[in-house]
Design brief:
Length: 253
């Protein structure tokens, strides 16, 4: 008898967040689910790992086909620990999300949700990140479900190339114009810090900022999102710039 697929789930909003619990509900249709997720929000942690302090993992839910653990580490820690000690066998799929907030363009570099799937990708496991362009704790995730089902079913059936993962972003909309496979848009954060006077003297800083994008190419993920398309950006963990690599063969050192 064939085993049901084993799906490892994590996020950067914490195991109690609405987004991850909506994702769990959808993914249980496809296989057995093990969740190892931060005990509280870990947004912006990227691929950070914990090396100087111990990490605690606590089982918070267990029923047939689903086990949920809370972890005091980062999203990447969660995947590392899950694969080391908390899954019964090698997962067939790693899924991050559904994130509260978009991870398009260069935001993918900061994202703990992408940290989940990059860690899974580095372990050679097909991995997908899902994010919604809303930071509302009670956001409506139901419009995302059909696309999640289609993406997950295709990846389970076809797999992904070694070293590649998918970054999927949803507009905050009750209906979508469609789905586009896109490249990552270029952009930057500006006015990133707000200065405040500390009541005991001196300044403290609060991270804030505005995101700027200079392009209007509809093949760029942020542009497509602004036009109400779901975006799927194939992402690689190989940082090599192959165009520059080829050009540098002619350099003299």
């Amino acid at each position: 008898m064939n085993e049901r697929p084993l799906i490892l789930v994590s996020n950067d909003d914490g195991y109690q967040a609405k987004g991850i619990n909506c994702l769990i509900w959808v993914l249980r249709e496809f296989g057995d689910v093990v969740v190892v997720a931060p005990h509280t929000g870990r947004s912006g942690k990227g691929c950070a790992i914990t090396s100087e302090t111990p990490i605690k993992v606590t089982e918070v839910r267990s029923e047939p086909g689903l086990t949920v653990y809370s972890c005091t580490g980062t999203p990447s820690d969660c995947v590392k620990l899950a694969c080391h000690a908390y899954v019964p066998r090698r997962p067939d799929l790693v899924v991050g999300g559904i994130n509260h907030g978009d991870n398009s363009a260069v935001n993918a570099h900061y994202s703990g949700t992408m940290g989940v799937v990059i860690e899974g990708c580095m372990k050679g496991i097909p991995s997908i990140a899902f994010s919604l362009c809303s930071h509302d704790a009670d956001a409506d995730f139901t419009p995302t479900y059909d696309v999640i089902r289609k993406v997950v079913s295709q990846v389970l059936a076809k797999g992904l190339p070694l070293g590649s993962c998918l970054n999927v972003n949803f507009p905050d909309s009750p209906a979508y114009a469609g789905v586009k496979v896109c490249r990552q848009a270029m952009g930057r954060w500006v006015n990133e810090w707000g200065a405040h006077e500390h009541p005991r003297g001196g300044q403290w800083w609060w991270l804030t900022g505005e995101f700027e994008i200079d392009e209007c190419d509809p093949s760029a993920d942020r542009v497509a999102l602004d036009n109400n398309y779901v975006t799927i950006t194939p992402t690689t963990i190989d940082f090599t710039d192959y165009r520059l690599l080829a050009d540098m063969q002619g350099w003299e050192f």
